[in-house]
Amino acid sequence: MSATREIIIYLVIILVGLFAAQHMNVVVSGSMEPVFHRGDIVFIQKADFLGIQEFDPTTLESGDIIVYNAQWFPEPVIHRIIEVGIDNNGQRFYITQGDNNPNPDQAPVYPLQIKSKVITIGDQPLFLPRIGYITLWIRGL
User: Active site includes 40?
Assistant: First the structure.
């Protein structure tokens, strides 16, 4: 195998790894149990990945699991949409709640806050159980 071909293969492997890593998110709490547990890695679509919109955050539905920037928590939150509404300005918003939480989240979620959507196959979210614990340990979470 030529050195050039070997370098190209390594570059492709690195690029695929970087792309894949950008489409995974580690669950940091137990708020979505029993669907996800702390340390699970979920596979996601991005609202904006290098200028590409992989899904439209204005067309989400009740039941979708999203990752969003909450005003009330410093880390991105992974919760399920339980209700879709329209505010007084005609803007769509979502009410979210962790499956293991007794109450909905503190504030509505607007499309601009949404970073990503968990990929599902049928009704089952796509994830790797417990693989993300090392990331949580490194980040001190």
Answer: no
